[in-house]
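I would like you to sit down with the record closing this message with an eye to the fold:
=====
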Amino acid sequence: MQASQSMAVCLIALLAVQGAWATTYYVDSTNGAEGASGTEAEPLASIAAALAKEDVTEVVLAKGHYAPRETITLDKAVVVRGADGAKKEDVRISGSN
């Protein structure tokens, strides 16, 4: 196996392992529940509930208004984004209702 092929195989393996560690939680301020699993089919109700998950790396927000009532402090990088198809005006985060 050539060196370039070996590097490509290592890179693919690294990306596969990295993807295994990535955990996405879904949030829906209208239809979610705090005790839900956080999957797309069973979204959580708040951003805070998703960020409280130990393994969270990404939070996907359904269209709606999100008004966290507490200060959220993170000690790791987490991507928070709107759901596929949502425009930036469809997802709103503010400090109060």
